[in-house]
């Protein structure tokens, strides 16, 4: 950790930062998360910027510092806390059934790329991605959208039947 940067910034601004908050544990494996500096070099030249990331030291879940990322350890930890809360919300949601087949999807992994994915065993509808939490979120969102589309189509069909029925009389 580069603690001197925090002290220097606090001395320059004239404000004491207080104790550094401890990052929440990883939502996937309950491992220890830590904020780290990722160096970003602009085109391989002398200009370097420090961007902070926060990752689990056990499973690697988290985010890397990148252009436009957090510029301080505090910002990285607060962004990690938001990421953890969102992940816990997605994990707590039940997994939606396939809207076509009404069957629960199977969890699989792409052997070549290592991506996790959910797939309906009957119609083979699938959603894939790098992080399991993101895959579950995309699957549930896709299922809800299809269910909403089916309901909208059924309402429009009933309305059309009423309009056609009135014109026929």
Secondary structure layout:
Blueprint: H1 3-13, E1 33-41, E2 48-56, E3 62-63, H2 73-92, E4 106-109, E5 116-119, E6 126-129, H3 132-168
Antiparallel strand pairs: 1-2, 2-3, 4-5, 5-6
Query: Helices and strands: which structural class?
Result: alpha+beta
Task: Give unreliable regions as ranges.
Answer: 1-14
What best-fitting shape do the alpha-carbon axes yield?
elongated
**Could you state the order of secondary-structure elements as H and E?**
HEEEHEEEH
Number of helices: 3
Terminal Cα span: 80 Å
- Biggest beta sheet attributes: 3 strands, antiparallel
Mean pLDDT: 78
Regarding quaternary structure, how should these chains be classified?
Answer: single chain
Q: Report strand %.
A: 15-25%
The count of domains is: 2
Number of strands: 6
Fraction of residues in H or I helices:
40-55%
Description:
- With 169 residues, the protein is α+β, with helices and mostly antiparallel strands.
- It folds into 2 domains: 3-92, no CATH class; 106-168, no CATH class.
- The protein is 40% helix and 19% strand.
- The protein has 3 helices and 6 strands.
- The chain has helices spanning 3-13, 73-92, 132-168, and strands spanning 33-41, 48-56, 62-63, 106-109, 116-119, 126-129.
- The strands form 2 sheets. It has a 3-stranded antiparallel β-sheet with strand order 1-2-3, covered by helices on one side. A 3-stranded antiparallel β-sheet has the order 4-5-6, covered by helices on one side.
- A hairpin with a 6-residue loop joins β4 (106-109) and β5.
- It is elongated and about 70 Å long.
- The N and C termini lie far apart (80 Å).
- Residues 1-14 have low confidence and may be disordered.
């Amino acid at each position: 950790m580069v603690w001197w940067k925090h002290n220097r910034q606090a001395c320059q601004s004239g404000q004491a930062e207080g104790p550094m908050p401890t990052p929440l544990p990883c939502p996937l494996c309950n491992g220890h998360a830590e904020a780290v500096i990722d160096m970003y070099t602009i085109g391989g030249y002398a200009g370097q910027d420090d961007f902070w990331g926060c990752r689990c030291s056990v499973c690697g879940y988290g985010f890397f510092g990148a252009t436009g990322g957090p510029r301080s350890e505090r910002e990285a930890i607060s962004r990690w806390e938001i990421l953890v809360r969102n992940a816990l919300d997605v994990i707590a949601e039940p997994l939606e059934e396939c809207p076509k087949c009404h069957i629960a999807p199977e969890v699989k992994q792409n052997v070549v790329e290592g991506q996790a994915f959910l797939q309906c065993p009957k119609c083979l509808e699938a959603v894939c991605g790098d992080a399991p939490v993101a895959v579950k979120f995309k699957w549930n969102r896709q299922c809800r959208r299809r269910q909403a589309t089916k309901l909208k189509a059924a309402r429009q069909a009933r309305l059309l039947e009423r309009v056609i029925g009135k014109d026929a009389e």
